[in-house]
Amino acid sequence: MEHLAQRYQQHISELNRRVADVLQREQLAGLVIHSGQPHRQFLDDMNYPFKVNPHFKAWLPVIDNPNCWLLVNGVDKPTLIFFRPVDFWHKVADLPDIFWTECFNIKFLEKADQVAPFLPADIERWAYIGEHIDVADVLGFKLRNPEAVMNYMHYHRATKTAYELVCMRRANQIAVQGHKAAKTAFYNGASEFEIQQSYLAAIGQGEEEVPYNSIIALNENAAILHYTALEHQSPIQRHSFLIDAGASYFGYAADITRTYAFSKNRFDELIVAMDKLQLELVDMLRPGASFTDIHIANHQKVAQVLIDFEFALGDPQDLIAHGITSVFFPHGLGHMLGLQVHDMGGYLHDERGTHIAPPEAHPFLRCTRTLEANHVVTIEPGLYIIDSLLAEIKADQRHQLVNWQTVDAFRPFGGIRIEDNVVVHQDRNENMTRECGLID
Fold first, then answer.
1. Does the annotation flag 110 for ligand binding?
2. Contacts with 440 (C-beta within 8 Å, 6 or more apart), sequence order
């Protein structure tokens, strides 16, 4: 923890530097960052699970306490307005006493609607950062999430500090333990629901603590990209298992996917081929590389796999030109990762907010950045049997390019996705997922 505390102080210094820079540019006095408020369920007296503003947790790992506020101007010691109500219905947040507290002037707020006296007197020169615009209006903020400030912060958020990398490595370590437990549960005959319980128990996090809903898919369910149904009954025949599941540490996310065959068969060989392909793509990451170019290179590699395993006929360029690879691999190669699973800034060319749209042929690509040192991205190629997409090919002349017998043979397995979390360094790539022990 002492090592983390030192890195954290450097992290706060960097955030202060960024704030000072953007405030000078935009002629602002400071930023007031709201942790957020609970959302009440419709026609009920209970709230939805609280999700903190990512701009707030960028400063400190308080992720479960609504109605908190940060006052930052890049020069003075940041002020934390920490919500501690008098409440016998719910657990009140503990008094903060951890490595990060010395970096803030801490004031305590007992009633959420009485924050106004804690805010700056010249509030018209401060910008509100958060989702509750109605609250900002009541408090008198004229500037709410100004575009220039948001673009600046989102662009620079892609470059991780040493503290953030420590947190993300730890998130990967936690998630890897869960993946190993889930793999064992699969081979022991567990249902999707039971595998999910094994995963959560191994990482020690609940369903509301993990950064996203786990995808636990057996057999044909692995072809559903965002499958979250979790069947309670085990299938009669066990063919394959795809798990896309992460973990959190101090608000930072891990996002990892693996696919397994129940038996040593042709599908298992396809997994091995996709794993090799994935590692080749990881090797292409470097400062100055275009993520879009790496995504397009993946289509070249997927096309060759389709030919090698007799899914398709022709040469790779023909399969790409006719959209065959996009049917078997319809999503993007990966995305920025950090405070959010799909972290902000993936489409930004510069800190002014210049947007780089994905190519027309690849609309679901989530990152078009030119990579820099200390960027963290996921690399997640896939290959799926998705009948709704295949039906479009079957209905036109492109059906001649597909070996439908092979498609039918692989349909019970659903699909494959392999995903690692990678830090781009100046002179190397750090595959956090594999270096934390998830080799296969």
1. no
2. 258, 275
Helix (H) or strand (E) holding 259: strand 252-261
Name every residue whose Cβ is closer than 8 Å to that of residue 427 and which is 6 or more positions away in sequence.
Answer: none
For 257, phi and psi rounded to 5 degrees? Answer: -130, 140
- For residue range 170-212, what is the model confidence (pLDDT) as tens digits? 999 999 999 999 999 999 999 999 999 999 999 999 999 999 9
In sequence order, which residues have a C-beta less than 8 Å from that of residue 33 and are 6 or more positions away?
Answer: 53, 55, 56, 59, 69, 70, 72, 129, 130
Low-confidence ranges of the chain (pLDDT < 70): 1-2, 88-93
Q: 200 CB contacts (<8 Å, ≥6 apart)?
A: 178, 206, 207, 210
3-state secondary structure 22-75: HHHHHCCCEEEEECCCCCECCCCCCECCCCCCHHHHCCCCCCCCCCCEEEECCC
Give DSSP secondary structure letters for 403-437: -HHHHHHHGGG-EEE-BEEEEE-SS-EEEHHHHTT
Is 280 within any annotated ligand binding site?
A: no
The full set of domains in the chain, from first to last, is: 2-157 (3.40.350.10), 162-435 (3.90.230.10)
Q: Is 244 among the annotated ligand-binding positions? A: yes
Q: Is 335 annotated as a binding residue?
A: yes
The 3 state secondary structure assigned to 173-231 is HHHHHHHHHHHHHHHCCCCHHHHHHHHHHHHCCCCCCCCCCCEEEEHHHHHCCCCCCCC
Site of tokens 């995504």: 295
Phi and psi, residue 290, nearest 5°: -90, 125
pTM metric for this prediction: 0.96
- List the structure tokens of 332: 């993007």
Closest CA to 72 of 107, 33, 37: 33
